[in-house]
Write a structure and sequence with these properties.
single chain, 539 residues, mainly alpha, two-stranded antiparallel sheet, signal, cell outer membrane, SusD_RagB_dom
Length: 539
């Protein structure tokens, strides 16, 4: 009994509280690890819960605030909400983070290990399950993929972390950190195993489950992040040429509430507006415009008001990035400025207006916007938005292949992929117009414009090495002499940002390259390990 209780509520090595999930209640009665995974239905129910935990956790504070805190630690986003307490975001956004003051990132660390513990329970139980081989392969492959995804997020946030690959009992709670390289090796091993187990596609109610192509796509991403250029190119190329995906004709259609699991999607988190399913997209609430009034909509109906929280708002610096390329489509699909029409929802929301006194930049993220017609159909706008969130999509694979090919000195091939992505949004080709390191910078710029607010910007600017300074790109943007900090403090004339100083203009000035390329391990977790877990350098 003790072992299942520890495993399922995941007191692995570092969990500080219990999860009140379905199997905990069963355990109090008759079920144990020896008999729970006895039917295909039980296996599927458990794995379904792993998806909810990994991508859009049903408890709002578990993952989403940490993901958004990471966005605010970049040049893409302010904290944004200047009318409420920002203490959960300040440590990351202003680089004032310490092991005892981590804001929402402390929850992210804990939750990822709870998720990993649940994956370990599933992997162990499903391998012993008396179900047919096809079902066993599918559920085992999904569990391996999801464990890899949780570790991918951990290693990119915190560097080397404890590697837990089996359900733990009471005597197993004090484990040392593994190296970053060892964590990546485990991720790769799980994904390669998943490739051999998972189906290439699913239909009907199973659409949206992880496939072999999702495993290859995540392999491409983690290979790129490790500078394994040949592997990154080959995995991305395999997804592009063999996976059967294609770019959406319209860029904005990727985030269309009526286009879930579209042709470009390799994997996206599934959502539903049914409250009892706890599958709503909480990011739409978190990042939605704060201070909307019904009288500002043509209908003057309260049903049109979203009641957003106004966190994680786009910077004028990001908007300037789009403007510098005359990238109208991706700019309007990514950013809505106060008073502009909501892109794609111009009839029902022709002048989207909210309370500027509570908004640092007077902008919101368009990608997570819920159209008026959908708002009217919701029982509650809080936590019930039916907007799937892309986890892996084809455009990233083209840009991964482009970056890998640059480093493999296949410059023409790299630019072919860049221009293919640009063509979708009606931008002119760059091939033949730039050369040398400018090709690499063009690829990085495309990644920023294409993938903004999809959870990659912080990881990108940490790993990218500026060829001019030989330092991580983040060090050229942040710190006292960083270009992003200097823009906001000496150059910006943006009327919203410079007039609302409730959030300071010098965001990023406290960045320290000696420590801030990863976040600290929460001190509470080090204490709980009896100091077996060692803190990241200089924290």
């Amino acid at each position: 009994m003790k072992k299942i209780f520890l495993s399922i509520i995941t007191l692995c090595i570092i969990s500080s509280s219990c999860s009140d999930d379905f199997i905990v209640h069963d355990e109090r009665g008759t079920q144990t690890l020896d008999n729970y995974f006895s039917t295909a239905e039980e296996c599927q129910t458990f794995v379904n819960d792993l998806y909810k935990r990994a991508f859009l956790h049903y408890d709002w504070y578990q993952l989403i605030p940490g993901r958004l805190a990471n966005e605010t630690a970049t040049d893409d986003a302010w904290m944004g909400n200047t009318g409420q307490d920002a203490s959960g975001f300040i440590p990351a956004a202003q680089y004032l983070i310490t092991p005892n003051r981590m804001g929402y990132l402390s929850d992210l660390f804990k939750t990822r290990y709870e998720n990993i513990g649940a994956c370990n329970v599933a992997i162990d139980g499903i391998q012993k399950a008396t179900i047919n081989d096809d079902q066993k392969k599918q559920y085992l492959g999904e569990s391996l993929f999801l464990r890899a995804y949780n570790y991918y997020d951990l290693v990119n946030n915190f560097g080397g972390v404890p590697l837990v690959l089996n359900p733990l009992g009471t005597g197993d709670l004090k484990l040392e950190k593994a190296t970053k390289e060892a964590v990546y090796a485990s991720i790769e091993d799980d994904l390669l195993r998943a490739v051999d187990l998972l189906k290439p596609s699913y239909t009907g109610a199973d659409k949206g489950r992880a496939t072999k192509w999702a495993s290859y796509a995540l392999l491409a991403r983690v290979s790129l992040f490790q500078e394994k250029w040949e592997e990154a190119r080959d995995y991305a190329d395999k997804v592009i040429t063999e996976g059967g995906f294609s770019l959406e004709e319209s860029f904005s259609n990727i985030w269309n509430v009526n286009n879930h699991n579209g042709v470009e999607t390799i994997l996206e988190s599934q959502t539903s507006s049914e409250p009892s399913r706890q599958l709503g997209n909480i990011m739409s609430t978190f990042t939605g415009a704060r201070g909307e009034l019904k009288d500002n909509f043509p209908s003057t109906s309260a049903a049109d008001v979203m009641d957003g929280w106004g966190w994680c708002v786009p910077t004028s610096d990001l908007e300037n990035c789009y403007l510098s390329e005359n990238d109208v489509i991706r700019r309007r699909s990514t950013i809505t400025k106060n008073g502009d029409a909501a892109y794609g929802d111009e009839v029902n929301n022709p002048t989207h207006i909210w309370d500027l006194k509570q908004s640092k930049s007077g902008r919101i993220i368009r990608k997570y916007y819920i159209p008026i017609a959908t708002r009217r159909s919701l029982v509650s706008t809080y936590g019930n938005a039916p907007l799937n969130v892309p986890i892996l999509r084809l455009a990233e694979m083209y840009l991964t292949r482009a970056e890998a090919n640059f480093h493999l000195e296949e410059f023409n091939l790299a630019m072919d992929d860049v221009d293919y992505i640009r063509d979708r949004v009606n931008l002119t080709p760059k091939k033949g117009l730039i050369s040398g390191n400018n090709i690499l910078k063009a690829i990085w710029k495309e990644r920023r414009m294409e993938l903004a607010f999809e959870g990659l910007r912080l990881f990108d600017i940490r790993r990218q090495i500026d060829p001019d300074t030989n330092k991580p790109v983040i060090a050229t943007l942040m710190g006292p002499t960083g270009s992003f900090v200097l823009y906001n403090t000496t150059l910006s004339t943006d009327e919203n940002e410079t007039s609302n100083l409730k959030e300071l203009q010098d965001k990023g000035i406290h960045f320290d390259i000696a420590k801030n390329l990863v976040w600290p391990i929460p001190q509470s977790e080090i204490d709980r390990s009896g100091n077996v877990i060692k803190q990241n350098p200089n924290y």
